[in-house]
Fold these 4 entries.
Entry 1:
Amino acid sequence: MSQRSFLSPGPCPLPSEFAEPLARAADRLGPFAGQMFWYASVSSTNDVAASLADRGAAEGAVVAANAQSAGRGRQGRSWASPPGAGLYVSTVLRPPRDAVRVLTIAAGVAVAEGIEAATGLDAALKWPNDVYVGERKLAGVLAEAADAMQYVVLGIGINVMPAAYPPDVAARATSLEEELGRSLDRGLLLAECLAALARRYDELRGGRTGGVLDAWRRRAAPTLGRRVRWEAAGSTIEGVAEDIDDTGALVVRTGGGTMMVAAGEVVWV
Ligand code: BTN
């Protein structure tokens, strides 16, 4: 990947809000127990993590920031990242090639499981890895692979506080504090998300994708059976989302037969 510039001059000591829960969860963090880089503010934690990976960072390196000035989401969108209002975290993974496709599915499952472990909130998944409560988005995952697939940076954004999101985001988004009606410990949230990711990633590395796919199906139950629309080869297609296949592609029943959506974005109709 190319040269990147960051706002922050360098990592800061990890605040105790994070250090203590991470230490308590250390034996469940697998590859994420080793290296944690904390920044007050960066452009994007995905960029910092990719830069570390380019310089040889080991699998499991974690980059987290209190704020991002240019946080980005899937499909070229931006990700609102006000200071202290969310969890903005990225990790370097070096998965076997055959695990890469299901990795994005596993990441969404892990984020939903981490949220549930930390807060009790039972969040749902929209393909491939958006975390929703009802019709409003709570968290998202951005997976970015290096050109030759030497590594994947997995970026996770979770809305924690109902902060000053831009109006277009505020209408479609929710936050943990809004859903729970109480304040929240971001350190515990990070520790539980990383522990869940460690567990699901270990399954993928071991070729055990069945548990990940079934966990996704359970969490997506409220969103399966819905009409979806997506763009393919310049046209718009609609159908009913039915399942995911073994590679994580969305199985959609259309008027013309069953289609698999392997990449891109589907919208609920
Ligand atoms: C989505 O569009 O749903 C994905 C959002 C991913 C946001 C996270 S925040 C941490 C990491 N850094 C970024 O710039 N993006 C991801």
Entry 2:
Amino acid sequence: MVSILDKNFETFIQADEIANEVKSLARKISEDYAGKEVLFLSILNGAFMFAADLYRNISLPSQISFVKVQSYAGMESTGRVDEVIGLTEDIKGKELVIIEDIVDSGITIEKVKKLLSKGGPSSISVCTLLFKPDAFQGQQKPEYIGFAIPNKFVVGYGLDYNGYGRNLEEICQLKTGE
Ligand code: IMP
Ligand code: MG
């Protein structure tokens, strides 16, 4: 059991299971995009560890870049405004693979895809380590999914609870009753 701030978590996916799955995702992507040039876009902060391990197993001529999604309450009636920040590459005509830590409701990833599509890439696909099918409200499921998990809060391997827990080598789930 691991305590983070006021909560207790228990091991849910062990480090060696994660490593095997990450390698298998990298193999699949490398096969699917053979002969093409890919630009990987990793979403910070949560995906940094997954992106590093995935990318070192990718065998394609490719580049990787790191972006952040900034949400802020606008002054207009539309409320929340989202922006992808940190993108310096021209994505026009590129094959994009977005690397995400977790797709929960799907709202974040759908926003990111919509914003990126304005840059005219030739394709966009999503590779997420974790996916919560019961929470998902989006239109299109991620093309590459490491683990489909129950609708419970998880931390570790890049994912945080209020900024903590990202350094855990395994993925831990909030203990029942917490
Ligand atoms: P969305 O609901 O798919 O838009 O997910 C939004 C963001 O919430 C994700 O990118 C994560 O950063 C975060 N998130 C969702 N579920 C979890 C979780 O179980 N643990 C840690 N972060 C999460
Ligand atoms: Mg995230």
Entry 3:
Amino acid sequence: MRVVLLGPPGAGKGTQAQLLAKELGVPQVSTGDIFRANVGEGTELGNLAKSYMDAGNLVPDEVTVAMIRDRLGAPDAAHGYLLDGFPRTVAQAQALDDFLAEMGHPLDGVLEIQVPDEAIVDRLSARRAPDGSVRDDDRPDVVRHRLTVYAQETAPVVDFYQPRQLVHPIDGVGEVNEITRRALDALATLPRD
Ligand code: AMP
């Protein structure tokens, strides 16, 4: 099963991706996690990505697409994956389509986790550690910018997939397990190849 998970920052996307990937038995492929691992290891890719991430901007498409092609070509992704945080732009969505066409596999579905802006602010405050420290890009000013980037760059990705009726909106407000259940129910309705 090849599934894309979309949702604004703070929608609980990472948490749901982890739970869903486990349920589905496919790897969770998170571009944010891969970038953060590279930043942590001080790789060339990490050094390049860091300035974009710290500012709440997207890493350039060509860098991100090259990285994801590499990851999706790995043996553990041969039978499916849950994409968490990719595609974030229409150009990335187009590149993913090209890759899927090369591989001869269609995308099975797109889950769009929907959360109102006010709930996002609450959640990102809750993501703060007890000592008050935050993930660098969870600072309030950066979060506001990431929400703007989401609206401008990533929301159009939903429209990109809409004509193929691939998009399943998921109400992202509620208990974690309840949201996972909604997502699994939506996935259960997808035709399988
Ligand atoms: P995330 O953990 O998904 O919120 O991603 C954290 C940051 O990594 C984002 O704010 C971007 O700077 C970068 N990033 C993650 N995924 C992508 C992507 N598909 N395209 C460009 N930048 C990305």
Entry 4:
Amino acid sequence: MHHPVDQPDLDADLARAADLLRRAQRVAVLTGAGVSAESGVPTFRGAGGLWEGHRVEDVATPEAFAHDPALVWRFYHLRRAAVAKVRPNAGHFALAALEDRLGSDQLTLATQNIDALHKAAGSRRVLELHGRLSRVRCTGCDYLADRPGEELPELPRCLKCGELLRPDVVWFHEMLPHRVWREAEEAAEACDVFLVVGTSAIVYPAAGLIQTARRGGAPVIEFNLEATPASSIADVSLFGPSGELLPELLRRLDA
Ligand code: OAD
Ligand code: ZN
């Protein structure tokens, strides 16, 4: 359950956040499911965290796929269909606008989301830490393909080798894509300000980017409905929907 946090001086906190951001040249961002919540994509934790009685952690593992690929694919077919219908919200658009404002290569957006909504909103430098739902790859060969919006068979097979295809996403117990992860770490180390948006900040290694940025001396600004483990290391925590807070922060940069 989300209990919206009472923030006595949101206005002053927004002003502090705007101040930090105005002075920054390089910005790194970590987003999670919360940034897409206002687009209608359900988050993992909290309400709706169970799927057909399974914890998400139990259908999103290589072990689950080996044991019951049809069950795992049913879960991903539903998610693919849901995500194909959604549009970016004001929070995604504000992050794309911030990238434009800072100029080329000054903003790196690392996302845990697999819905590709940051790209759809116009963000260019996006690091998809957990892969992308609309892409499939083969479990037997190096086949990799974009299949957005397409209805796949219950157990889709590779045209090249006949083995099962799987979603090109990172499951629990799997490594993050190596190059993408290295770029995210470098961005966290080098940034002047780090934004954490809509993540419960408990899934590693992604959540570790927040500590990496902090160790590198960057102030951390958090956007969430409620307090998270990131709140204790954030310089400013802004509690509310990211689709409202991010555009408000952007407006204040020019004010
Ligand atoms: P979670 O579902 O764990 O957390 C979503 C966070 O967003 C919570 O802290 C909410 O309070 C917050 N939130 C919800 N609505 C919001 C809104 N409108 N504005 C701002 N914040 C809002 O999602 P993640 O942190 O993304 O991994 O989860 C991390 C990873 O765990 C996912 O990438 C996925 C998952 O299992 C894999 O699949 C590998
Ligand atoms: Zn194959």
